[in-house]
Amino acid sequence: MATTYAKAAETAEAVEYAARLEHVSKSFTGPGGRHLVLDDISLDVAPGEFVTLLGASGCGKSTLLNLVAGLDQPSAGFITTDGRPALMFQEHALFPWLTAGKNIELALRLRGVGSSERRARAEELLELVRLTGAYGKRVHELSGGMRQRVALARALAQDSRLLLMDEPFAALDAITRDVLHDELTRIWEETGLSVLFVTHNVREAVRLAQRVVLLSSRPGRVAREWTVDIPQPRRIEDKPVAALSLKITEVLRGEIRRHGRY
User: Fold this and answer.
1) DSSP code at position 231
2) Rounded Cα gap, residues 135 and 116, in angstroms
3) 36-56 core/surface letters (b: 16 or more CB in 10 A; e: else)
4) Where are the domains of the chain?
5) What φ, ψ does residue 130 adopt, rounded to 5°?
6) Distance of CA 50 to CAs 231, 247, 256, Å?
7) Which of 76, 112, 163, 257 is the most exposed place for a label (fewest CB within 10 A)?
8) Are 48 and 194 in contact (CB under 8 A)?
9) d(CA 112, CA 211)
10) pLDDT 10s per residue in the chain (262 long)?
11) Which segments of the chain does DSSP mark as H helices, in order?
């Protein structure tokens, strides 16, 4: 099968989805030959939809996100997105020699935004992530949660309609992570972005998403999906969140037992 990576703006179906994966597979060559990591993944993300990708460690979640971002090519299948996605990693990846504002301005400059506009736009984005006044702060002056907010603002500076997030809160303490869940939900609702969010934390997946997609262990396949019909705002400890998380966890445990890995 031919492999492509295209922008949905170039197709007649641009308004139908933020991302479309059609029979996507990915394999790598390593010791012992060819290893299949992802197998026949078909998945759509609607405009404005928040989708979480959930699965055991090593199931190919991050690999799939990298394919959607265009950082790698599928071995088979097709990936189409509504414009080029923005990607936020688990590590903030901020440049320590730049201030918070200048880190954001770098993304704006790469987009071709003029120097006279960059400072004002960076200030607006810092305000959006509730870091008003942090423009001149260096990375070492920021807490872990603040650094992730700056990284989020930098991703938003790319002016993409699709935000890809690879376990961005995994390294944070529980309280900071909970606060950033609230902030991400607020920003998603205010901006209308589409979000594809990778996590191995079941409650985080249910806390944030409209739809949870579970990948099986290697090779990664779509094992099951759940629509999350719980009104926002949600809390990790809410009974409906806990109840759905328990159901999903049982299915995930079955996948882990079946493949013997986590």
Assistant:
1) P
2) 16
3) ebbbbbebebebebbbbbbbb
4) 1-32+41-85+168-186+193-262, 94-159
5) 60, 45
6) 13, 20, 25
7) 112
8) yes
9) 35
10) 433 335 444 444 445 899 999 999 999 887 777 888 999 999 999 999 999 999 888 888 999 999 999 999 999 999 999 999 999 987 778 999 999 999 999 999 988 888 889 999 999 999 999 999 999 999 999 999 999 999 999 999 999 999 999 999 988 899 999 999 999 999 999 999 999 999 989 999 999 999 999 999 878 999 999 999 999 999 999 999 999 999 999 999 888 777 655 4
11) 61-69, 100-110, 115-128, 144-156, 174-191, 202-208, 239-259
Going from the C-alpha of 239 to that of each of 24, 233, 235, 242, the distances in angstroms are 36, 13, 9, 5
Q: Got the DSSP string for 189-207?
A: HHH--EEEEEES-HHHHHH
What stretch of H or E contains 39? strand 33-45
d(CA 4, CA 65): 15
Check residue 1 and give its pLDDT.
Answer: 40
pTM for the model stands at 0.89
The third-level CATH classification (topology) of the domain covering 1-32+41-85+168-186+193-262 is: Rossmann fold (3.40.50)
CA dihedral for 167, 149, 92, 164, sign (positive or negative): positive
Q: From edge to edge, which strands make up the β-sheet containing 76-81?
A: 3-7, 76-81, 19-30, 33-45
